[in-house]
């Protein structure tokens, strides 16, 4: 029996997310990102297309590595201006019943008690449809915004994340017993104090401020592909986001993650961009239309920040040798594999087809379905995080053209499953089960 493909929309509460320059296309509506109808309309489209979730990226700084300033990022709307994604979720949840929401939040600049309350609040308000993409950050500009000289070294950020994770697990899973909330009007007891306890961790001693939410611990996403990131994912993540790698490299990553996490089951989503037409020729024409709006400057500003390298310092054909970065370490390794040990700025720029390093999948529904199915078969991935191009037509085409083709092949669900986000993804209970460390905190 073929494996069902899972789909998330990959987005961000900003104008330019991954494919830079698309906001200049006359049909693009991403500049309406600061109006609720933009987001509620997106949520309704994804619900109609039976998407599993909306994966919302986030950063806490600006991309100021390219040219040693933020000018290019500001000029090209490269993930700035940027809203708080958490505040969008309740509005989208109110117009949907099944869509999950994976929200990125950087634990390096959070306190466990306040963060745990925000996530529990969202889990209540969405009726158990919230997930958390765990990140530790990669921008020095974010560290400076939080009063630090620069970010902590790459592996040290993961080391610091461990006590934070233990603290939030304790708050979500151990502070309130299942039967703590009585709601006893006659007896005048809302909560039984004997069934609530103070928990400790990461320098904190606190009673969780929220009563138990449907999932307690949100669905846990993580995107680390470095050796230290994989170790963290194997311990904590339920879903892993892989991006920026060739199919064979993703296959090796997936095999490694599954072996590390065993016996726990993890799902792996790979980043993808699709350009869909009703015919292959129409898709190719659409790609050329989009390419006229791609921003090389925006793509270079994004790449400089995510690799921790100021590419403005290099002449077009000057070899770029990078030994180590405290930004996204796996991105540097990916570039080496793609372009060789000493790649050049010109070769990078030539790869920016739609304003990013992500090569689009272009074709009609049958052709794109073939490509996605090949990824599942050859790299053992579970699904895809689909980044946007021109909004909203790029997602409308997925829902109207690609989803029916996948359904026809038996590769996509015919209806939403009932239950929480975790239940929909894994077909088990609402809560994490042993041997996950969150379950062991009970």
Q: What's the number of extended β-strand segments?
A: 16
Instruction: Look at the helices and sheets and give the structural class.
Output: alpha/beta
Beta content: 15-25%
Mean pLDDT: 94
- Give the strand order of the largest sheet, numbering strands 1, 2, ... along the chain: 1-2-3-4-9-10-11-16
N-end to C-end Cα span: 37 Å
- Describe the main β-sheet briefly: 8 strands, parallel, barrel
CATH superfamily: Luciferase-like domain
Helix content: 25-40%
Backbone shape: globular
- Please state the second-level CATH architecture: Alpha-Beta Barrel
Number of helices: 15
Q: In terms of topology, how is this protein built?
A:
Elements: E1 6-12, H1 36-48, E2 53-57, H2 71-75, H3 89-94, E3 100-106, H4 112-125, E4 130-135, H5 140-145, H6 154-174, E5 181-184, E6 189-191, E7 199-201, E8 204-206, E9 219-222, H7 227-236, E10 239-242, H8 247-261, E11 267-272, E12 274-276, H9 280-291, H10 296-307, E13 319-320, H11 329-339, E14 343-344, H12 345-351, E15 361-363, H13 365-379, E16 383-387, H14 393-408, H15 421-426
Parallel strand pairs: 1-2, 1-16, 2-3, 3-4, 4-9, 9-10, 10-11, 11-16, 12-15
Antiparallel strand pairs: 5-6, 7-8, 13-14
Helix pairs in contact: 4-6, 6-7, 7-8, 13-14
């Amino acid at each position: 029996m073929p494996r069902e493909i899972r789909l998330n929309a990959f987005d961000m509460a900003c104008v330019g997310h991954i494919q830079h320059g698309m906001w200049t296309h006359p049909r693009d509506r991403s500049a309406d990102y600061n109006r609720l109808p933009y987001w509620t309309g997106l949520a309704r489209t994804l619900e109609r297309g039976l998407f599993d979730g909306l994966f919302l990226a986030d950063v806490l700084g600006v991309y100021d590595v390219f040219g040693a300033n933020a000018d290019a990022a500001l000029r090209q709307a490269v993930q700035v201006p940027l809203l708080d994604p958490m505040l969008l979720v309740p509005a989208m949840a109110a117009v949907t019943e099944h869509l999950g929401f994976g929200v990125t939040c950087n634990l390096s600049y959070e306190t466990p008690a306040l963060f745990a309350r925000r996530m529990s609040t969202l889990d209540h308000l969405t009726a158990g449809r919230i997930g958390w993409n765990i990140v530790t950050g990669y921008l020095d500009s974010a560290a400076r915004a939080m009063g630090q000289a620069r970010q902590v070294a790459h592996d040290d950020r993961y080391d610091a994340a461990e006590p934070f994770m233990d603290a939030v697990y304790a708050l979500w899973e151990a502070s309130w017993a299942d039967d703590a909330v009585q709601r006893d009007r006659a007896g005048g007891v809302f909560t039984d104090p004997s069934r609530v306890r103070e928990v400790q961790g990461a320098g904190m001693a606190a009673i969780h401020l929220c009563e138990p939410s449907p999932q307690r611990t949100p669905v846990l996403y993580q995107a680390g592909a470095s050796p230290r990131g994989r170790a963290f994912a194997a311990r904590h993540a339920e879903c892993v986001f892989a991006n920026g790698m060739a199919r064979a490299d993703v296959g090796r990553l997936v095999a490694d993650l599954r072996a590390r996490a065993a016996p726990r089951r993890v799902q792996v989503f790979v980043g993808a961009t699709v350009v869909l037409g009703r015919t292959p020729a129409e898709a190719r024409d659409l790609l050329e239309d989009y390419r006229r709006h791609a921003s090389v400057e925006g793509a270079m500003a994004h790449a400089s920040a995510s690799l921790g390298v100021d590419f403005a310092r290099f002449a077009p054909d000057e070899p770029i040798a990078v030994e180590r970065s405290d930004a996204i370490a796996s991105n540097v390794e990916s570039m080496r594999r793609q372009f060789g040990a000493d790649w050049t700025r010109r070769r990078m720029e030539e790869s920016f087809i739609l304003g990013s390093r992500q090569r689009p999948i272009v074709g009609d529904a049958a052709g794109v379905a073939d490509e996605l199915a090949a990824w599942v078969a050859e790299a053992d991935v579970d699904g895809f995080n689909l980044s946007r191009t021109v909004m909203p037509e790029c997602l409308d085409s997925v829902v109207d053209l690609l989803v029916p083709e996948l359904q026809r092949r038996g590769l996509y669900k015919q209806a939403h499953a009932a239950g929480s986000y975790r239940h929909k993804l894994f077909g088990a209970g609402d809560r994490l089960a042993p041997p996950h460390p969150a379950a062991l905190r009970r």
